[in-house]
Amino acid sequence: MKPSATIPSTAYLPAPVEAIAGVWKFSRSPHFKAAAHSLPGHLLHWVAKGSYTLKTNGREYRVKAGDLIYYHESEEVLWTGDASRVVFYSVGFLAPRCQPLPIAHRVSRADASMKTSFLRLYKIWDGGSVRNQFEIHALMNAMLNALERSARNQSSHSQVAIDSPWWRAEAGIRERRLFRPSLSDLARLAGVGRSVLIRSCKKATSMTPMQRIRDIRMEEACGLITFAHMNFSQIADYLGYSRVHEFSREFATFHGKSPREFKRSLCHPCK
């Protein structure tokens, strides 16, 4: 038998979900109030009980039991509870090839299959042991497919809306690890003029390009502090800071705690 020919790299189909950070169940007391930034990557919540007001991306939502909530990367979030106790399930995952859902579709109703998937994920999650990895990833990819299909069915938004100039620029930022780009750099990545890029970014994220880049940089910093074996000077250099104290100052301003304080608090997830 002759040796098989080398398989071209284009023959491989990459998996949408590359890694799953965890599956959690949270409970919040009546009249709770909290502010935080979401975890790196993508995050899904399914609200099993209660109701509250959610503010994120310049929008306000009245969330109730049965709702599905989606977050992408480091988004600032403010919750204000009412008289009910809130119980929700959460799953964090990395899917860098998947574009984020449009802002208008961050809160939606979960169908019966989504509820079943969340409960099953929580039941079998034990840190992602080999015994359950296949089922965990199968469930996660099916949930992601259902979420994207639902968003498309509920509106007239198309692939063009998702593949907007800003999301093209952001994909280039993450791929090239370009954490301190100029506006001209971003425009070149998107293949459009600066004014078009600014409008696209505000429409996609409710922020200016430089505000969004700062959020990406701070989200990346959280990920590096959490998962990478790097000291703060190495992280600062990786993110493009000329001095570590500049990184520490911006991190503390953004997150309300220094990098060292953040590292000490890692036993608690951001959401």
Q: Which range does the strand content fall in?
A: 15-25%
CATH architect. name of the largest domain: Sandwich
Task: Return the structural class.
Answer: alpha+beta
Topology as a string of helices (H) and strands (E) = EEEEEEEEEHHHHHHHHHH
Shape assignment:
globular
The biggest sheet, with number of strands, parallel, antiparallel or mixed sense and barrel status, is: 5 strands, antiparallel
Instruction: Look up the CATH topology of the largest domain.
Output: Jelly Rolls
What is the number of helical segments per DSSP (H or I, 4+ residues)? 10
Distance, first to last CA: 55 Å
Any idea what the radius of gyration is? 20 Å
Q: What is the C-level CATH assignment of the largest domain?
A: Mainly Beta
Helix content: 40-55%
CATH superfamily of the largest domain: Jelly Rolls
Spatial order of the strands forming the largest sheet:
1-8-3-6-9
List the uncertain runs.
156-161
Q: Can you count the beta strands?
A: 9
Average of per-residue pLDDT values: 83
Estimate nothing, just give the exact number of structural domains: 2
